[in-house]
Amino acid sequence: MGTRIRIGRRINISPLWVAIAIIVLIAAPALYLAAKTWQTSRAIYHEIPTQAQGALTPAPTGRIPIVIITPQATATRGVASQLTPYDPSKWVPSPTAEATPVVQSNIKEWNGKKRINFLLLGVDRRGNEIPRSDTIILASLDFEHNRAYVLSIPRDLYVNVPGFNYWKINAAYALGENPKYKDQVGGGIGLLIMTLRQNFGIDIDEYATIDFEGFIKGIDAIGGVDIRVPKKIVDNQYPSESGGYERVVFNAGLQHMDGEMALKYARTRHADSDFGRMRRQQQIILAVQQKAKNPSILLKAPTLLNIIKGHVETSLSPSEQLKLGRWAASLPKKNIEFYSIEGPIGMTPDGQSVVYADWNAINPILKKVFGPQAGHP
């Protein structure tokens, strides 16, 4: 018997649901603009097999294959900020005094749960190519204590993808979207959810995805975001639309970013690392959450209508998005904790550069963020 995974339909987007800050809060800021209509049924159920037919055979021992740790990475082994979560709030200006907070929302539980896990994906879609997950963020939403815990996962984290042996974690979504396996594993979302359950001991209750174009349009629609860039960034190898590279520069200090600039800030990594990239994404998440506190965003609804239609997929209905959005937008900064998984860079036998999963260091963070049942078995 397979595991039952709820897979949501693609939805149309309307700024009238701008209060959907919760989706933005835990991954992609453009998702502040929530659903206009709910096409067909809210969700369908797929039977997920334990192993995709025709896929690679899982490692029989369940142990991770040999990974050679590179010298420059050995000193950083484990999870960064193991005891102290990353705090992006000092890089995000607070709303002005004129910005009245949104209506308070007091959610006691969600479908019988006082705490739920939310998966957010930034997806790279290019023409007829199989889409890939570029950003993976998990959030634990604690309604009992009115808190949110946000965990960024490096896309190169080396994990066991059920039915496919060991891959970088961002490959799970692409493998699931491959027409050869899609119906068997519930698509990219289905396979990634199984991968998270197997490696992290976490069940996902809800999810949302957004592509790059939707991210850009969403940020532009809310008037951009303000971020204090901690230090100057120069990336001479940022991937351009033409398939080559372009130079991207961010000066230190307060910067107002439109959608395109915010996307580059969220994706650039050659100036430091993928770990620095995750911290920048968390800064943007908090910046949008703070922006949503300004009621003037709601006044832009007529202009924003349908602006990011077709770029978002989620398991939430419109009423659920509004409910969660109000709750998230009302959270004070101090009630949102950010974490990221970091570790040494390793080299697999076939020459892939990966992030080694030191579960002895990662598990304490998983248990803190998602509860005592979480953790790699």
From TrEMBL:
The keyword Lipoprotein does not apply. Pfam families: LytR_cpsA_psr. InterPro entries: LytR/CpsA/Psr_CW_biosynth, LytR_CpsA_psr. Signal peptide: none annotated. The chain crosses the membrane at residues 12-35. Residues 132-293 form the Cell envelope-related transcriptional attenuator domain. The keyword RNA-binding does not apply. Keywords: Membrane, Transmembrane, Transmembrane helix. It comes from the Bacteria. Belongs to the LytR/CpsA/Psr (LCP) family. PANTHER family: POLYISOPRENYL-TEICHOIC ACID--PEPTIDOGLYCAN TEICHOIC ACID TRANSFERASE TAGU. This is Cell envelope-related transcriptional attenuator. It comes from Thermobaculum terrenum (strain ATCC BAA-798 / CCMEE 7001 / YNP1).
